[in-house]
Fold each of these.
Amino acid sequence: MKTTGIIVLILVIFAAAVLAEVWRELHCFKITRYRIRTSKIKGDAGKVRIAFLSDLHNHVYGKENEELLLAIREAKPDLILAGGDMLVGKAGRDWTPAADLMKKLPQIAPVWCCNGNHEQRMHEQQEIYGKEYGYYEKELKKAGIHVLVNGSEEIPVNGMKLRLYGMELPFGCYKKGWKVCPLTTGEMEERIGSAETDAYCILMAHHPLYAETYWKWGADLVLSGHLHGGIARLPLLGGVISPQFRLFPRYSGDCYEKDGKYIVVSKGLGTHTINFRFWNPAELVVLDIIPAFLYNK
């Protein structure tokens, strides 16, 4: 009986520790930094610092998101990029917390954003969501934010010629289940055109599942999110499950490189529906793009 009591006590303490950690991860965020090396940029170009936000889902850190805004300001970015799912795209859900944060960002640095699946379904399914996406987009543009919906813009910064693309994926790419919806470079070109060959190409595409296709299309750097870090993370194995209920997704949250091309997958800043994180803190991503000749300086 005494042994049973000890076991119960240990289990209670363990459960309390897990719940405390889950609570902490749902109410705090960390800053994750990456250095991206490129030999594509030559000459007198300097490094470019990007603050990358994704999957906020209306979350608020401190009064009116002052904690998140302070962290972005202290990072001193040249650009701020938002990779989608800043709001919660469900009927009747308020999008103003996301808009309120976004509208303050241009006071720190120039801002570009693309749509995740939450904004995209509001955009494409007006029979369900009415004109809410249009109102949201209008608020962002009034604040000076560049909204890239299957479009691109050239951004010369610190002597580096960047071409930034924002792509909405075919909505079937977000379908739940084990069957993977294919994506071809041809479909990408129909949406955003061909990758520019004489610029450093950054692609914001919300779902990281198609990293190989993005690279084949011509992206030098891909910025994604969507998987929320895999909900929970395990040592060596990474993220446990994707929103499509696929176990141990390959690109769940980190910086991945192949043949000099990169994909940075944010673990996200918020949650929705399943409000759970474990060993998987929310994060603000800060990355430096550094020409090869400056990389070790």
Note: The two ends are 65 Å apart (CA to CA).
Amino acid sequence: MTTTTADSIPHHDGPTPAQIRRGRRTALLLFAVGLGPMLAATLMFYTGWLNPVGQTNQGLLIEPPVPVAQLNLQTAGGEPLQARFGADSAETKWLMLVVAGTCTEDCEQLLYLARQVNIALGKNAPRVGRAAYMAGVPADLERRWQEDYRLMERLRPVTGESPRWPAGVDPEQQPRLLLVDPFGNVMMNYGTEHTGKQLLKDLKHLLKLSQIG
């Protein structure tokens, strides 16, 4: 009779090499499925690869794109803005960000433009967020904010820091609308010289290409 002892039973303290290889292949596949379409969309948008003939962006490209972390902005609750972006974020979406010094007529024109474009996106509206950073808000606009722009989040500088803007963007001199992709890249900007139709055209094109956000 054969006696089975604890010493004669094979011990498996961890995954086998074959299991590790399968796990790595699975992780790479999930990465490609999740991030591949967005990377392809970015490449297509910037290079025109496979775009329809004559398809061009309407906004001004920020080249190279600037990480949103560089802006030094946070939410009213103190969350860094960059925490909203990336494949691991549950809130990942595109963002229209209006930036200005004291919000006067041109600034409010961009606030209104962002609101109307968001509405015009229809079923895709939830894929695009709206936010604003303004160094100063006139009393009249402050009184009307909840009625006119209640769905636009207000941002403020990170404690102890000042906002840093992409090259060519100076909100104190001219308010701008920055477009941020789901990876947290500030990629385009618009001003009062642009129409809602132009911004809407860019967003529809990007949302069609993107599977993230």
Note: Helices lie at 17-47, 105-120, 139-148, 196-209.
Amino acid sequence: MIPGTRLVPATGPAGAEDRALPEEVPVALVYNGGTFAVMMASPADLTEFAVGFTVSEGIAPADEVGEVEIAGHPAGIELRMWLPATREAAIAARRRALAGPVGCGLCGIERLEEATRPLPRLPPPRWSLSAGAAREALDALRRHQPLHDATRAVHAAGFWVPGTGIVAACEDVGRHNALDKLIGALALSGRDGAEGAVVLTSRVSIEMVQKTAALGAPAILAVSAPTAQAVALAQGAGLAILSGAGGTIRAYSGTILETP
């Protein structure tokens, strides 16, 4: 059985059977001995989750994270990290102790202005893609979702490089967690986010734009449409959003999609 799943009895038209369901556990992000956030997440790729969350939330760059200690706890899992003393002020300014529902990526933000803070302008993209290539990227992610195949209950985030395909993919019960895990995996492998696009199985909301911008990727490809606020934020950052909702590739922001 795939790690992070549990067999649970269920009944259907054909009678009783055991079905694999995804695990969902509290995972605490702990910096320098203090809890910053507690997120409900799938208990896999936890080092990647710790590094990716640290980067995407602007707490510290990946090279300052060092070793991640994964510690069991009676109520869940702790991801313990030690950052340089120069990061203490940033941690204290944004510290939050919370249980973050998997459907909410902005839980714990203390000031309304932080939710829609402007993003730095990304450099112009180094590459472009056709609508056909965008569709191929979305289809390719489907082949990198073993946890979804087993449970039909999780999201995925992948990184697609033109001419190469999906080079990394992560899954989680939370779409934000899946993206954080992907960002961590790319950081740990030393891959430059500007090389490719983030591919998502979920809708594109503000926090997904913020995390992708932190990665430095110039585009998001998603199976669902974005929110209006996500498009506005992406436009200001020079980030392309492409959606395959309804079977047609549509560009909502950016200039990365080649014109027919």
Note: Residues 59 and 91 are 7 Å apart (CA to CA).
Amino acid sequence: MSHTIAVIGAGKIGEVLLSGLLKAGWPADRLIATARRPERAVLLQERYGIRVLSNADAAAAADVIAIAVKPQDAGALMTDLGPHIPAGKLLISLCAGLPTSFFTKYLAGGTPIIRVMTNTPALVDEAMTAISAGPHATAEHLELAEEMFSPLGRTIRVPESQQDAVTALSGSGPAYFYYLVEAMTDAGILLGLPRQVAHDLIVQTAIGSAIMLRDSGEHPVKLREAVTSPAGTTISAIRELENHGVRAALLGALEAARDRAKEIADQNL
């Protein structure tokens, strides 16, 4: 925790990273944020006791520079910020869809880059964060990135070539679960349950099922079969899911998300 970290563009995910680092014991005097709006800067200073500087000053003061802006804003940001980042500093990108090659054109030769995809359960310290080494990133840089993001949940290393698939699966993944819960809540109401009762039943069932899947080490098929009795209610429901092509729809949805991630990269390269 001897490194000074600057979060450039401390919006929702950037603030979650700052909060997680502080909860993990990272000293507040080694954390820096930047914000576009003055009122946002004041809020971050008052809430976390950290420094809020200009982009250029933050880059000069930090050892690690985490870029947490929207992908469409990254080009303008890096045009201004790139000349202020010496080659010895580590750049970490949280910009969805942007490959490390996007950043190399703005940076001095030899600057190490790491690409990170996390997700919104970071807000409750249950994120899934995928970390990929880009150009000039060493094992030590990867370990530092893991140290930064492990307070937010679980981390995993993947080749950068898999990051678009990660974006489709876990980056966007929470939205799919919320969509499913919304649909199941409506189904519960159709079956005669009050909305809150249906919601509570589904949410706790989802939590319990996820914990069983994580902690048991069993394949999901085996866990599903344990609930699926011959000629019972569950197999009747699963037959309807298969008849309506739910599995195929999920495959198509994730492919669409993956393809959109590639389009975002192509539009910004």
Note: The chain has a mean pLDDT of 94.
